[in-house]
């Protein structure tokens, strides 16, 4: 079974605390993403209960771990994560600066589908997922999930630019001219 990814936009107020802590939602339940998938409540429960460690990666690259997730849990909204970028890792320090500047504004979950059902021609409900990793990414696929942390506020111009790119990617996906990540 191939590893799949679901991208989620981080909060307009995503920040990095002085200790490089980030937190928020990596996936939201009941929201259809640009690929036509909807994660259902409870989809991560069995995977989280297994106790297997979930990695924090840069852009889904298994050769680039950049931190550690200290808390992962499902609540009524989705999959909430809290972790820390590792100061001793050059890419993690770069990621922190990119977040502070507003250049990185996405999270993405990497998983294997254990159980899913097609609800109509364009939508698949993901019922059980085996969670492997949560990555910081450049281009989110699900724009309604959010991450928050303590620190400096993002520049609103960069957020607006990211929204323009999201809208353009959605238009290309709808017309079949673009490729969606993952």
UniProtKB/TrEMBL annotation:
Signal peptide: none annotated. This is Prohead serine protease domain-containing protein. GO terms for biological process: proteolysis. Residues 19-156 form the Prohead serine protease domain. InterPro entries: Peptidase_S78_dom (IPR054613), Prohead_protease (IPR006433). Keywords: Hydrolase, Protease, Viral release from host cell. The keyword Protease applies. Pfam families: Peptidase_S78. GO terms for molecular function: peptidase activity. It comes from Pseudooceanicola nitratireducens.
């Amino acid at each position: 079974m191939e590893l799949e990814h679901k991208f989620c936009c981080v909060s307009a107020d995503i920040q990095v605390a002085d200790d490089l802590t980030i937190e928020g939602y990596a996936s939201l339940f009941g929201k259809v993403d640009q690929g036509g998938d909807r994660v259902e409540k409870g989809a991560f429960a069995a995977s989280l209960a297994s106790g297997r460690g979930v990695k924090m990666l840069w852009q889904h690259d298994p050769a680039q771990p950049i931190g550690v997730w200290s808390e992962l849990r499902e609540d009524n909204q989705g999959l909430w994560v809290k972790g820390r970028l590792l100061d001793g890792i050059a890419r993690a320090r770069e990621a922190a600066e990119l977040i502070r500047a507003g250049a990185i504004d996405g999270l993405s979950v990497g998983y294997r589908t254990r159980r899913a059902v097609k609800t109509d021609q364009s939508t698949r409900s993901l019922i059980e997922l085996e969670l492997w990793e949560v990555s910081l990414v450049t281009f989110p696929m699900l724009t309604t999930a959010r991450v928050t942390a303590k620190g400096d506020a993002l520049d609103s111009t960069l957020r607006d630019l990211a929204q323009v790119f999201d809208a353009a990617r959605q238009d290309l996906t709808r017309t079949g001219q673009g490729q969606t990540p993952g």
